[in-house]
Amino acid sequence: MRRYMIHCQDIDIRVTEWGERDKPVIFCLHGLGSTALSFIEVADKLQNDFRILAIDAPGHGMSQSFRDDHSYDFPRFCEWLNQVLDMLDVNRFYFLSHSWGSFIHLYYLINQGERVDGSILIDGGYQSKRLRGNSPENESSFYEKDFEDFCESWGEFESIAVYDGISRRSPLLDLAAQDLALHNDNRYYWHARGSTGAAIIRSMYRDEVLDFSSQVQTNSMILLRATLPESDEPFKVDASSQFAKLTGATVKAVPSVSHMLHWENPDRIVQEIKENWVISVSV
After folding, report:
1. pLDDT beyond 60 at 131
2. Three-class secondary structure of residue 28 per DSSP
3. Are 71 and 29 in contact (CB under 8 A)?
4. For the chain, what are the domain ranges?
5. Distance CA 252, CA 34 (A)
């Protein structure tokens, strides 16, 4: 695993890379509040077959925030992402994403679908804000406050902020957990700030997924969706069904996993990749 910084559009971005440069490329984009190491277990299992690249999205981990909140809007973010990929010398690639990263992924396919050889979305890209029925004011306010909260000890931070609701742990996930905290004055804070969380949430309301999903250009898209908690199944079934109709994606409900599907069942992600991507080679 190699970690290094690049500079794109006036902000510094941290890149994490696994595997050799002559292998097919998988580019990974994490969810809101996470970092590149969100994919650490999947990357560790695939690094002999692929070159795997992941970034800390702006305002996350060691990456600087966008100076303009509207830079998180999907069209501008995707233009920026295209420049990042050019800087990393990536031409064609497979796209793997989680949660909020999957909404960016989906929008990227509208104008840049020819660069993407295959898409796997991990419990993201389908949860329409319109169907959910919340408001941008309420949801952005929640994240603005939640991301500014703190814990008094590392153990408390791990239990509450990192592993709450997640069914398993491992040494690699513990390493990823260290990416998620800021330690200041003997307190542990979430690494992404409340202003970043709020800006991203507001952007997701401005770029409603139901309004652009039918424009997506792709030959191969798989959505792996969580099935826990059971109380959210009616929404997920409805939202993923509409998503499949609009995009032509194959939707697979993964049993007994929550939103952090790739942490709870990384082998399922690896299985899908090997079954669908390993036979093809990026140029």
Report:
1. yes
2. strand
3. no
4. 2-276
5. 23
Q: Give whole-number Cα distances, 157 to 181, 258, 261, in Å.
A: 8, 20, 20
Q: Which two tokens stand for residue 199?
A: 């800006």
Residue type, 1: M
Tokens representing 140 are 């952005």
The third-level CATH classification (topology) of the domain covering 2-276 is Rossmann fold (3.40.50)
Tell me the per-residue pLDDT of 243-271, one tens digit each, with 9 for 90 and over: 999 999 999 999 999 999 999 999 999 99
Q: List the one residue out of 276, 252, 247 whose CA is nearest residue 105.
A: 247
For residues 175, 15, 5, 72, the Cα torsion angle rounded to the nearest 10 degrees is -110
Give the distance, in angstroms, between the CA of residue 195 and the centroid of all CA atoms in the same chain.
Answer: 18
Average pLDDT, the chain: 96
Global confidence as pTM: 0.97
Are the C-beta atoms of residues 93 and 117 closer than 8 Å to each other?
yes
Biggest alpha carbon–alpha carbon distance for the chain: 51
Q: Is the pLDDT of residue 200 over 80?
A: yes
How far is residue 215's CA from residue 75's CA, in Å, rounded to a whole number? 13
Let me know the angle formed at the C-alpha of 82 by 79 and 86, rounded to the nearest 5 degrees: 145
Q: Which residue, among 127, 126, 132, has the nearest Cα to 222 in the 3D structure?
A: 126
